[in-house]
Amino acid sequence: MSAEDGEVKKPKDKFPIRHVQTMMMFFALVICYGMRVNMSIAIVVMTDKSLENSFDWSMQIQSVILSSFFWGYIVLQIPAGEMAAKFGGMILVTSAIAVNALVSLAVPFAAYYGGWQMVCACRVIQGLSQGFVVPSIYNLIGKWTPMDEKSRTGAVINSGSQLGNAIQLLISGFIADAWGWPAIFYVNGAVGAVWVVLYIILGSDSPQKSKLISAEVRLYIQTSLGQVGGQKKLKTPWKAIWTSIPFLSLIILHCSQNWGYWTLMTEMPSYMKKVLDVDIKANGMMSALPYLAVYFLSFPFGYLSDYLRNKKYLSVTATRKLSNSIGFYGPAIALVGLSYVPAGNVTLAVILLTIVVGLNVGHLTGLMLVHLDMAPNYVGTLLGITNGTANITSIIAPLVAGVVLQDETDPNEWRKVFYIASTVYIAGNTFYLIFGTSERQKWNEPPENQTGETSDKSADKVV
Question: Which residues, including other chains, have CB under 8 Å from residue 449's CB and lie 6 or more apart?
């Protein structure tokens, strides 16, 4: 029985609590990604020798600080999906943002009294706790979102990560200019604390546990998702997953995307300051433009991807590969052009940076949806594996940039950084074009004797 068959009509909810859950998850990603990127702007001010009480940290130390978030982030990616299924997504998301808020408030004290080592420790803790966020949010999407709303709900929630990047880059310069760099972390911590309080009041693990949802809407969601009656939790086919060539190519694709994306995310503010000589206030505004481009492009890209697929102009696999090619080859070409922008040509540099990062939207309608295409029953686990592995490159990429940039004011050294990222983009997508697929994998449906009962299946089945 499904809502689409007409057996349960979509009710008109005076207080659409499922949409409230969507917006809370959207803002959860806005906050988490904002906290993830705030150091990229703050460190430019923290190491500005023209300011009092600045820190004498070399480019190598700065690169270590910028990469330290991911040391913790990669640890819990795979187990987080299993923990969300067992304990529920709400408690994990709430705990993660609460920890991030508290640590954010502590970063200025850590810098002044513990040096860069304590700053790294704070970032590791933030990364460790944020490892729960994405798998838990997918868990909650699976429980709260009816089948006919999955695509647009996923697009709205995932766009929060890009908006979080943009807002943080946009306002951090103004905050630092007005109140000093510590205020960046204080504002982040305060916003995170407000979200935690609101989510404790409004949030819930599932419609079944919510006291704010009507019985009619609860039944509609459960019926749409096939969650009425007993549920089964499928055991994860680890061997089949790790020996799947298409899935291994997806891991490589995700790694290459993270390399290029996080090279730009962590190094772009320094590039604009050291090479283009853009002041910190304008730096934040210009650095935010590319991520605003991703946010706004995510909606038409999502529509076009569904249109090509639904009209059967392209197969699912071809549609995903087209999106990936736009999101990987496009930035690779633009990066080469960026590496030859004359020093001081701010306008051209910002245009190319916007193209480079903006075209990364292709991975949202390609790479991220392939997990679902291949095995919807295990999408959380697959995403945990690829995201955890890919974030190892998020550690390596800034470190490589730090090694290459012996003189961060030299455009030729920045050209090497951009060439490396461009090469990784091209190699990763080419490998996936050869070996990748979006066809449903046989191991998505294990034999009946490999399933076990549970009270909620939606954590394992996300659309």
Answer: none
Both 200 and 317 in one domain: the answer is no
Cβ proximity of 150 and 286 under 8 Å:
no
Number of domains in the chain: 2
| 208 pLDDT above the threshold of 60 | yes
Which phi-psi region, left, alpha or beta, contains residue 61 (left: φ > 0; alpha: ψ -120 to 50)?
alpha
Task: Specify the pairing of strand 451-454 against strand 231-234.
Answer: antiparallel
Question: Are residue 229 and residue 242 in the same domain, yes or no?
Answer: no
Q: 9 in a domain, yes or no?
A: no
Domain membership flag for residue 305? yes
Residue 314 vs residues 55, 257, 304, 362, 432: alpha-carbon distances, Å: 54, 23, 11, 16, 17
In a domain, 43, yes or no: yes
Task: Give 11: exposed, middle or buried? Use CB within 10 Å, 0-12, 13-18, 19+.
Answer: middle
> Are 111 and 140 members of one domain?
yes
For residue range 226-271, list pLDDT tens digits in order. Answer: 555 444 566 788 899 999 999 999 999 999 999 988 787 767 767 7
365 belongs to a structural domain:
yes
DSSP state of 232: E
Token duo for residue 208? 């079944």
Q: Is 384:133 a contact under the CB 8 Å cutoff?
A: no
The enclosing domain of 109 has a CATH number of 1.20.1250.20
- How far is Cα 42 from Cα 62, in angstroms, rounded to an integer? 11
Report the predicted TM-score, pTM, of the whole model to 2 decimal places. Answer: 0.75
Q: Which residues are bridge partners to 454 per DSSP?
A: 231
Query: pLDDT at residue 314 above 80?
Result: yes
Q: Could you tell me the residue range of the domain that residue 303 belongs to? A: 236-445
How many contiguous H segments (helices) and E segments (strands) does the chain have? 17, 2
Q: Supply 252's token pair.
A: 């490589």
